[in-house]
Structures are given as structure tokens and as C-alpha cells.
């Protein structure tokens, strides 16, 4: 049975490769040591933009001048 622990980390470029760090507390929890072979599941995290543009009005096709110019 696989024991799955999740973390979100940024990649860092080292030479021609990308590196991902494993936090110490996660490595300790999973018993991971230098030189161990591990299995990773790679999944790109999508940014959540909800609430990022406070005060921005909802899109309205009738009042958008730029949109009507190209239709």
C-alpha cells in the first residue's frame, strides 16, 4: 500500500535540469534519506485567480467597445 503525502514546491533550474526540494519534515515523516529511490507523481498546479481583480466589473458584451469593433 502506498503512503501518499502531498506538498506544493516550486521548481529550480540546475544546469539543464529542474530540481524539486523535499521539505525536511516531509522527508523525516516518510523516512526518505539521501540516495533513496522514490516515486513522484507530477501534477502542475493551476493558479486560483478568484478575487485577484477586486473592483473589476463583470464582462458585458454589449458595453465592451473593443469586442464590438471586431465582430
Which labels suit this protein?
single chain, 17% helix, 11% strand, 71 residues, alpha+beta, elongated, two-stranded antiparallel sheet, 2 helices
Give an overview in words.
- The chain is an alpha+beta fold and 71 residues long.
- The protein has a domain of 44 residues.
- The chain is built from two helices and two strands; from the N terminus they run E-E-H-H.
- Strands 1-2 form a two-stranded antiparallel sheet.
- Strand 1 and strand 2 form a beta hairpin.
- It starts with 10 loop residues before the first strand and ends with a helix.
- The mean pLDDT is 79.
Widest β-sheet, arrangement of strands: 1-2
User: Would you report the number of β strands?
Assistant: 2
Give the H and E element order: EEHH
* Beta-strand residue percentage: 5-15%
The end-to-end distance, rounded to whole angstroms, is 57 Å
Uncertain runs: none
* Helix content range: 10-25%
The count of helical stretches stands at 2
Class from secondary-structure proportions? alpha+beta
Average residue pLDDT: 79
Shape: elongated
- Radius of gyration in whole Å, from Cα? 22 Å
**Biggest beta sheet summary:** 2 strands, antiparallel
Q: Secondary-structure map with pairings?
A:
Elements: E1 11-14, E2 17-20, H1 24-30, H2 65-69
Antiparallel strand pairs: 1-2
Q: Could you provide a short overview of the structure?
A:
The chain has 71 residues and is α+β, with helices and mostly antiparallel strands. The chain has a domain at 1-44. The protein contains two helices and two strands.
